[in-house]
Amino acid sequence: MLNRTMLLTLLACPVWLLFAGQAALANEPYRELDRPRAYTPDVKGDARFSDTYRYWKDRSRLDPAMAGNPDEYWKLNWKFMDPPFNQAIHGGHFAMDHGETRFMSLNRTHSFARCLGAGKQGLKGLRAGYPRYVARLGRVAGLEEMIEHCAAKEGVVMQNGSYDNSAVALYIASHSNGMPIRIQVSKGPMRQAFERGRLLYHTRSGRQNFACASCHVHNTGKHLRGNNITTPFGDASHYPVYRTRYELQSLHLRMIECQLDTGAQPLLPGSRAYTDLEVFLTALSNGYPVAVPTERD
Amino acid sequence: MRNLLSFALIGLALVLPAQAQQMAPGFPGDAAVDLGQEKKTLKPRVVPNSGRLEWMPAERDLTSWTTLSHLDQRDARRPQRVTLEEPLAGNPMRGRDIAMAKSRGNCVACHELPGDPWPGTVGNSLLNYQRRGMSDARVYQQIYDARIFNPQTVMPPYGTNNLLNEQELRDLVAYLQNLE
């Protein structure tokens, strides 16, 4: 039998889940984890993961031959859709213009930008430091959640995931273009969010019993019909993104789409679980530059 | 003001339990659902130049399986061992349709099957499956719930999770066992 001290140690140390295929705490609901592993919270961690980072490390030096090769394109992690490789004008540009207009009207007294955490540098670098712990909310929040929160203080409805919200996020992100994502997940609530996000990434759910990791960790590079599965590293640096099928899409809406595609009940944008996943995924983009506006199929 | 608040709270108290009755205990409060809809599960629709996110019914009701919500207190379905009652009585032609259809078996998403130009490579190729000499019962269990053989399998438990019914599973077994 476990004595009290041992039990407390186990509970305090989530690492024990690494060694258990299944979460089996007596009071916790039954869940299956798909082979959790450790992650370096930096885009360079992909070198020991899918080892494709070297191909998409520098967006201005992508190999056009790889982009056009059905067996190789996935190794570019879709960065051939990003500027400067992709010079097309698309819906993301119009959304960014719309975002600028909406931002200007919200920020007449500068209180909106201040609420979002803009300092002397203005909007520069703001996107690269989200998600972050927001003391006055007492929780970790993504940029889109903060836009909704700060717009409400200006008396404007800008729901998380709405076109206006993502458009403003896109405009703000454009001031971080070329700047590497930099979020700290080494201590405090951000570390806890990263750790929860890491486990969620490996938690099975839905009718097909898939975890994100079932495909994007354990089957990277393989075919799902005509599509090759890509790495989770360096994927959070281009949101919100213009989707040719879905208009403007925030990262949380992307998660909803992933869940619907794999037969799992989606959650609301801004839910704690999605925010934890956002922290985890953004940390895997640490060191990789923001590039907006961009598009995906 | 205080009276108004009390009325609102009483109103909520009347509405919420009624909704809760429709869902299994432990269903999370942050799931995208409309309990008034037949399919309950919602998908978002981004409306250009709007500050509001619209929601519409998804193609399928997904509320009976677990979610990623921290608030979800329901158990996931555990691996299930089954016995196939002989005879198999499966129809290979129907089985083929199920294997190819995206909304049903969608086996070709991961496996190679004859006649599909873009096979997946996540699972083994199923070409010439008959040559493996598997028993019907073994194949039936593999599709019903493959976790019995490999707890880490990525293959969905088609029987345990009610993705396909018993006859559809029998049709699939008949199809695979006839792939020469």
Helix coverage percent of chain A = 25-40%
- List the strand order in the largest sheet of chain B: 1-2
Indicate the proportion of strand residues of chain B: 5-15%
- State the name of the first-level CATH class of the largest domain in chain A: Mainly Alpha
Q: How far apart lie the N and C ends of chain A? A: 54 Å
Widest beta sheet: strand line-up of chain A: 8-7-9
- Major sheet details of chain A: 3 strands, mixed
Number of strands of chain B: 2
- Average pLDDT reading of chain B: 90
CATH superfamily of the largest domain in chain A: Cytochrome c-like domain
Q: Determine the oligomeric state from the structure.
A: heterodimer
Shape of chain B: globular
Tally of individual helices of chain A = 11
The SS-based structural class of chain B is mainly alpha
Calculate Rg of chain B over CA atoms.
Answer: 22 Å
How would you describe the overall organization of this protein?
The complex is a heterodimer of chains A (297) and B (180). With 297 residues, chain A is mainly α. Chain A has helices at 4-12, 53-56, 64-67, 91-106, 111-116, 143-153, 163-174, 188-201, 212-216, 251-261, 272-283; strands at residues 22-23, 31-32, 132-134, 139-141, 223-224, 227-228, 241-243, 247-249, 295-296. Chain A folds into two domains: 14-87 and 184-291, Cytochrome Bc1 Complex, Chain D, domain 2 (Orthogonal Bundle), CATH 1.10.760.10; 91-174, Orthogonal Bundle (Cytochrome Bc1 Complex, Chain D, domain 2), CATH 1.10.760.10. Chain A has a three-stranded mixed β-sheet with strand order 8-7-9. Chain A has a two-stranded antiparallel sheet with strand order 1-2. In chain A, a hairpin with a 4-residue loop joins strand 3 (132-134) and strand 4 (139-141). Chain A is globular and about 50 Å long. Chain B is mainly α and 180 residues long. Among the domains of chain B are: 28-64, no CATH class; 92-177, Cytochrome c-like domain (Cytochrome Bc1 Complex, Chain D, domain 2, Orthogonal Bundle), CATH 1.10.760.10. Chain B has helices at residues 2-22, 92-100, 136-144, 166-177, and strands at 42-46, 53-57. Chain B has a two-stranded antiparallel sheet with strand order 1-2. In chain B, strand 1 and strand 2 form a beta hairpin. Chains A and B meet through strand 2, helix 7, strand 5, strand 8 and helix 10 of A and strand 1 of B.
